[in-house]
Amino acid sequence: MAILGNIIKGVIELKDTFSSETNHAEAQKQVLETLLERAKDTQFGKHYQFEALLKSSTIQKSFADSIPYFDYNKINEDWWHKLHEDEIDVTWPGNPSYFAISSGTTGKTSKRIPVTNAMIDAIREAGIKQVFSLKNFDLPADFFEKEIMMLGSSTNLDEKEDHLEGEISGISASNIPNWFRSYYKPGIEISQIEDWDERVQRIAERAKDWDIGALSGIPSWIELMLQKVIEHHNLNNIHDIWPNLQVYTSGGVAFGPYEKSFKALLGKPVTVIDTYLASEGYIATQIRPETDAMQLNTDNGIYFEFVPFKPEYINEDGSLKNEAPALTIDQIELDQDYVLIISTVSGAWRYLIGDTIEFTDIKRAEIKITGRTKFFLNTVGSQLSVNKMDDAIRDLEKQFDTTFSEYTICAKRGDDDEFYHYWYLGSELTGVDEQNIADALDASLKNANKNYKVARSKALHGVKVNVISPKRFYDWNERNKKKGGQVKMERVMSEDKFADWEAFING
Predict the structure, then answer these.
(1) Which of 70, 61, 52 is nearest to 29 (CA)?
(2) CA-CA 20 to 30 A from 391: which of 106, 141, 191, 441?
(3) Which residues form the GH3 middle domain (predicted)?
(4) Whole-number Å distance between alpha carbons of 249 and 215
(5) Virtual CA dihedral for 43, 37, 279, 360, nearest 10 degrees?
(6) Where in 345-454 does DSSP place strands (E)?
(7) Quick check: 159 and 224 in contact, CB under 8 A?
């Protein structure tokens, strides 16, 4: 009998009994007031007169009216650069203990995003919320006695003067509470290995020593790790070595594009739970099995605003125009893509995180990630978002009975001086007629997106497809020193980067 598991499960159920449903609008107003109060004496708080904002009878509107939008480049140029020049109390009291290094999927250079102790606490609280929500998934008691494989970036953080630097997954894993360490795999020693291939090799070698009940990590890298374990032990599937694997916690990207290839590595179904941990904070987590949407963490260190994702509000570089309207959580609607704006306990203010989301349940504050502002392909009016591209890829998988686990796209002129969408699709499919795939992809996008259909009848001349091994996408990331951890493939490339990509593929 799973005695410890029954105790843990009982505590989770008891906690739920005494929990009340969150009023997300009220929680958000309280979070904003707390953020302003704590930061009113910072350089940023004094510059934007937080003291006066706190006295406003319409504090959320006054906040939006008084402070401009910031993306990383703007807030770093105006404010965060001071953190590296021995200044304190810049956008948050004191100095951050960590900087999350994030090259993201669009930037040319690494970002250094401050992570304060207050943010570490907020991330931990959000993680606890996720644990308590497991009650809703009707997992057996013995699940709570199994180990959890968390595959992120290295926890061997770099020491830089008065702070530590690393990817957010490594920072989070290095701050796991002591009571959780016995559950955490691959353990401290292996998780500190910086070379991703070496770390995965050690995981494969030790895999038989662990009783893994849950996995957590970016889908593409989890898949590669599972493939390595299966290959190393000559298995049919991962359940041959981890028979009690029951849960996979995905994060960072939509799981849909990886679902078919992920399931091929399993011997039996597992529960997939989506989470949304970004370098800037723990945004949302799935709390119930009836949906794969995630609930915003509205009461825990992050204040959210939502800008309707419309071409007239977006600059060519993916930033927001100053006149773009921002809505609060009590003003949003269903069936509308929004650019996500956050203000946080790490000193990010009205910060464009770069993701677009839509609400699936307003009362529960549940969302889905629909794409990236810089992955919005609007060349010649096609207005393609990542979720539309993902849906088209799922259609292709059904039609051609294969998996396309990775892809990237660029809109550019061809040799005939006409505009085309150039797609590279990652699949082990061989002997394929790429023109047939291009025609099927084109038809799927026309059916799903009227703007794309109109563009195809005018300036967008056609679709060109190249099918390559998924490994080439991982090689590309490795070449750019972006293998493992929080790394995600860029879905839409600029012409300059696409030229570099094609040279790499052809070379």
Answers:
(1) 61
(2) 106
(3) 298-364
(4) 6
(5) -140
(6) 351-361, 366-372, 406-413, 419-426
(7) no
C-alpha 315/C-alpha 320 separation (Å) is 6
- Strand order from edge to edge, sheet including 147-151: 184-185, 147-151, 212-217, 247-251, 271-278, 281-285, 294-296, 366-372, 351-361, 338-344, 302-308
Out of 3.40.50.2300, 3.30.565.10, 3.40.50.12780, 3.40.50.300, select the CATH number for domain 1-373. Answer: 3.40.50.12780
Assess contact for 186 and 207: CB atoms under 8 A: no
Q: What is the pLDDT of residues 50-98, one digit of tens each?
A: 999 999 999 999 999 999 999 999 999 999 999 988 899 999 999 998 9
Enter the pTM of the model.
Answer: 0.79
The DSSP element (H or E) to which 13 belongs, if any, is helix 3-17
What is the C-alpha separation between 292 and 248, in angstroms, rounded?
13
- Gap between the Cα atoms of 301 and 120, Å rounded: 10
pLDDT digits (tens, 9 = 90+) for 312-345: 887 766 678 888 999 999 999 998 889 999 999 9
Domain ranges for the chain: 1-373, 377-506
Output the six-digit token pair for 90. 């810049």
377-506 folds as: GMP Synthetase; Chain A, domain 3 (3.30.300)
